[in-house]
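Internal QA ticket QA-208
Title: Verify multi-chain structure generation after dependency bump
Assignee: T.L.

Test input:
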Amino acid sequence: MKTEIAIIGGGPAGLAAAVAAREAGVEDILIIERDNELGGILNQCIHNGFGLHTFKEELTGPEYAGRYIEKVEELKIPYMLHTIVVDIAENKVITVMNKEQGMFQIEAKAIVLAMGCRERSRGALNIPGYRPAGVYSAGTAQRYVNMEGRMPGKKVVILGSGDIGLIMARRMTLEGAKVQVVAELMPYSGGLKRNIVQCLDDYDIPLKLSHTVVDIKGKKRVEGVTLAQVDENRRPIPGTEEFYECDTLLLSCGLIPENELSSQMGVELNPVTSGPVVNESLETNVEGVFACGNVLHVHDLVDYVSGEAKMAGENAAAYVQGTLMQAGKEIPLKGENGVRYTVPCTVDRDRMAEKQVVRFRVGNVYRDSFLCVYYNDKCISRVKKKVMAPGEMEQVILMKSKLEAFDGLESITIRIEQE
Amino acid sequence: MYDVVIIGAGVTGSAIARELSRYQYNTMVLDKNSDVCEGTSKANSGIVHAGFDNEPGSVMAKMNVRGNAMMEQLSKELDFSFKRNGSLVLCFDEKDMDKLEHLLEKGKKNGVPGIRIISREEVKKMEPNITDDIAAALYAPSGGIVCPFGLTIAMAENACVNGVKFQFDTEVLNIVPKEGGYRLETSKGVIESKLVINAAGVYADKFHNMVSDEKITIIPRKGEYCLMDKKVGDYVNSTIFQLPTIYGKGVLITPTVHGNLLTGPTAVDIEDKENTQTTAEGLADLLKRVAISVPTVPTRQIITSFTGLRAHWTEHEFIIKEVEGAPGFIDVAGIESPGLSSSPAIGEYVAELVQGIYPMEKKADFQATRKGIPNVAEATFEERQELIKKNPAYANVVCRCEVVTEGEIMDAIHRPLGATTLDGIKRRTRAGMGRCQSGFCAPKTVEILARELGKDVSEITKSGEGSNYLTGYNKEDM
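Actual output:
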């Protein structure tokens, strides 16, 4: 089997990339999705707040996905459901399996990686204690409650104030569980400010910053957890332990892009994001392989995922149509002084659009600081920001005309500076 | 009345059951948990020790070397994962060379094949990631790694196919001698047997002491482990032990037979025989100790940690004999390391003991071989196509981290002694053992279990009664 563009994953990123590639004129596209429907994790995000940027209205997750699924259907873009990609070779031969067709290979000219991410597990956090039933990642609990109508627990403690954890604090409360506390290891929340207000404050659920779980009790099912305050090195402070009786511990401690397939095919990964290193076209080091959405770096808002995926889809289209310019001089983009990473990692002035969005996260909470962009050693812009926090993705926009007008440009640096 | 009742469906009990199933005994295995391999057998190093550190002449030494020699053939007969990767004992200081020599001597006396001391350079060539600060190492090429679940389940399944009965969720509460045998009062009623084999792991003292005035004490010796992602599974090639240093008894680091990297165990004597919790101190201590062997141990790749309890007898020796004053009651107690390695030999030896007490004809139709669940993840393209042709469910991947399919999970449920819990599925297929630690596949596995067992998803448990995954329906408690 052959296709011009294969899109790995039918979540928001894959859908938007497929639509964009088709609208750019590529007929032969194939979306490969492992679940039994398109839409990805959005299908379990039944709360609202999606689409404010993309559609200028407030939608639920399934509604947002629905808009894109409708487009995919309308444009008659082919897709395969419950089909798992087991391998992608460097020559873009994709090995897949499903119940109907068995195991077979698909040769693609271009590939868009859109596999999303997974949640950090209890094991990866190395939380000590027993290993009973009742310890779930927030996303697993979300799936049970929102898609199966089943409760994973009645009395809940949540570790981690990532957005899914905050959303689940509210959801579990609305469904009749008692959410006792949300503990966060860091001195700041990992989630969006609006979620703290709407999901915790509105339901009187306390948020304990600089706290972590130091013990899990219960041999068969969780019977309780012990929280403790942590010091500035994130080590538990003896004497601050507090026991919470509960039957469930939900974990919302970060998301990890799922790049096992990418690295198998030789795609270079950025250790900070765990996502591929990409250029301005969202192309990886393997020519014709593009990445977008949470497999590239974890986003806060699906609206941004759609925008990024559109670009990846358009560039994949240009690649197979032969209109994507050969890569020329790649100017490195660097994050410094609190800017943890940038996506993309390089820009090519000839290939970039007039406006190039560069997204990044900061490593701490910065108040009344300046977000600065340097061309070589020259400060080009210095914008005062009231607050920047790790839970909220930041961006700067690079202008092609400005970059072209700057003689001898060797690097671009984004950094945070104080007064 | 049974001919033989075995208490405990761990690796020892299962090995004995399998050996006894060669004969026409009417045998029953009892376990208080809901599956085989729920105690010490599920939480250990998965090492097939070469057998150099046991006291020459001890039961441990004999069983270990014999068990090691049997393992390869057995792995072929019963289709479980086993690999001879060799083991190294690192000596960090020239001053300790005499200790290494002593270990070599013990190994030779115990009949460990091919054992020798190798130079620092040779060690570094074999294991580039280990510390530069070593003097030499003891190399035992016969050391190996095995899947502890695979070994236990394979022997139990084979015993089951050959007619041994298994009864789970059955706790033995009291044992009373009676004419020609024993009366076992259990949580599921009274069971009578001519012979009783006590293979109860950390609880073996409890049952021994029910029938003997010569009391014994089995101490749960806790060992904590960290398991790392398959990405770093080749960080070391052999199983790497440490000569005891001034910092105390060492820990090991090893690839697992499935390609993960494993380090552990710590050693702390405790009282509570159910205390399998990991501790912050224990894990920190472990990572500090393993860094002596591998300073750059990739701790960021830890995917889970766990605790096992060694069934440590105060005299540090295997007790495998008929209890004095309790005819027909056989202790198989104090089976701590190298218990896993020794298990096939213990099974063989106990079957001989039973034969001595109560001789029985061999079965004419004994099935010596067993075929395991197909492994889609490790199958070739052609093998996968073949499997999928037989059952399309082998193309439906449920656990994406370990590439475990619906077909394999269905097999795990419908085999002899099939899985009824999530942990049971995990140990038989590896679904949920990967880097996401069942985040994605648990709901799907629960669904398949419910469907195949004809139950509601709310009845499905992680590891038996009281460990239900779900607590009810939305809004039920409002």
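Spot checks passed. Chain A touches chain B through 52 residues (CB under 8 Å).
Status: verified.
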